[in-house]
Design goal:
Layout: H1 23-35, H2 38-47, H3 50-62, H4 66-85, H5 90-115, H6 128-136, H7 144-155, H8 157-167, H9 171-198, H10 214-225, H11 227-236, H12 238-255, H13 271-290, H14 298-307, H15 310-335, H16 337-364
Helix pairs in contact: 1-4, 1-13, 1-14, 1-15, 2-3, 2-15, 2-16, 4-10, 4-13, 5-7, 5-15, 8-10, 9-10, 10-11, 12-13, 15-16
């Protein structure tokens, strides 16, 4: 399918040029915005009681789709873009990702370990060996576990490109891959619950193994390969998709069993959370289609522009939120938790995206090497 043909006279959402924003851009922006509230909710829940704590716990479940949405969006955009070109140059791709992901990972991880070492997870470094361990496994800050997992998908991208080419436009192969991936996911979730449920401290590294999020990567690939029929299904059954998502959310809340202060009771690695994430991805995809109507099309360019800095903003968000929390957030949260949430969340978003954009401008003004 030609990605650059006009959509005039067609159902919107079937073929749009990438510069106008694809569903991957929408998913990245939604995920990045939502993920910035998760560390804040963990702080606020510990300081709250009663109905306030319940409300904060429900909100935490409401945004528990961030990592899956990121994976789905990145795989969709990457495969779609290279599919339009008809070739996947791995060396060129890695050079691009070095600037977009690997280099920001290096400087933000260094900033957390050297400037805010209190944010380390599991243990604290005490020599160069433990420093390196904390650096590479995502323990430098609460949110970097996801970064360690995401980089695995970048390295494995040729495998996903090969899967995309293997499936092609053949529905039978698509069904085989979809069903096979669902079975792998169910088996992995069962294994995770068995191992982590018995020895959570010994198996925490399973959180950042790429297989845990395979279903979202494959989902992004299948949406590229079968975009027209899948979008038609979503548009036709949008109400059912909404009910499915809300039911999955309710299941997650019930699974908390009244332990509102323990947000880890419901993790990404439960079937309820997996279904909820897939439901949210479906709804965001529907919203992307809606934005392709004339009166909404301006949002496409905005989302594409914001999505350009989403990953870099994500890496730095906990840094800025920690500074705001230590400066005035903790004091406000003890008396007015909802006000603290309403102020800290957008402030963190603005600082994270603003700094990411500032670094982009500085990097763009660097001197050009003379050959």
């Amino acid at each position: 399918m030609n990605e650059h043909r006009s959509t005039t006279g067609r159902r919107p959402g079937i073929s749009l040029p990438h510069q106008e924003g694809d569903v991957g851009d929408f998913l990245k922006v939604f995920a990045c915005t939502a993920v910035m509230v998760q560390p804040l909710l963990a702080q606020l829940v510990r300081l709250s009681t009663g109905p306030t704590q319940l409300g904060l716990a429900i909100l935490d479940n409401l945004v528990k789709y961030t990592a899956p949405a990121f994976i789905f969006g990145i795989l969709y955009t990457t495969i779609r873009t290279h599919s339009g070109a008809g070739v996947f140059n791995y060396r060129h791709y890695l050079r691009q990702q070095w600037a977009a992901l690997f280099w920001p990972t290096i400087y933000w991880t260094s900033a957390y370990l050297l400037l805010l070492p209190k944010l380390q997870q599991e243990q604290h470094y005490h020599n160069w060996t433990s420093f390196a361990w904390q650096f590479v496994n995502g323990n430098a800050a609460p949110h970097l576990w996801y970064n360690t997992m995401m980089l695995q998908f970048i390295i494995l991208m040729p495998c996903f490109w090969a899967l995309h080419r293997l499936v092609g436009k053949r529905p039978q192969r698509g069904w085989v891959v979809a069903i096979g991936t669902a079975l792998i996911t169910l088996a992995w979730l069962a294994l995770y619950q068995h191992l982590v449920g018995q020895n959570p401290g010994h198996w925490y590294l399973l959180d950042r193994v790429w297989v845990s999020f395979l279903i979202y990567a494959v989902g992004g690939i299948l949406l590229v390969n079968f975009r027209r029929p899948l979008l038609n299904v979503l548009l036709r059954f949008w109400l059912q998709a909404t009910v499915f998502t809300l039911a999955s959310l309710a299941w997650m809340i019930v699974q908390m069993g009244g332990e509102w202060a323990n947000l880890s009771v419901v993790s990404y690695y439960k079937l309820s959370a997996t279904l909820y994430a897939l439901g949210v991805i479906s709804l965001v995809t529907i919203w992307w289609v809606v934005n392709q109507f004339g009166q909404w099309r301006g949002n496409l360019r905005i989302m594409h522009g914001v999505a350009t800095y989403a990953y870099r903003a994500y890496l730095g968000n906990v840094f800025w939120q920690t500074l705001l929390w230590d400066w005035w957030g903790r004091q406000l949260a003890t008396t007015h938790p909802w006000l603290a949430l309403a102020l800290l969340w957008p402030a963190t978003w603005l600082l994270a995206f603003g700094f990411a954009y500032l670094l982009h401008l500085i990097w763009g003004c660097r001197p050009v090497k003379q050959k």
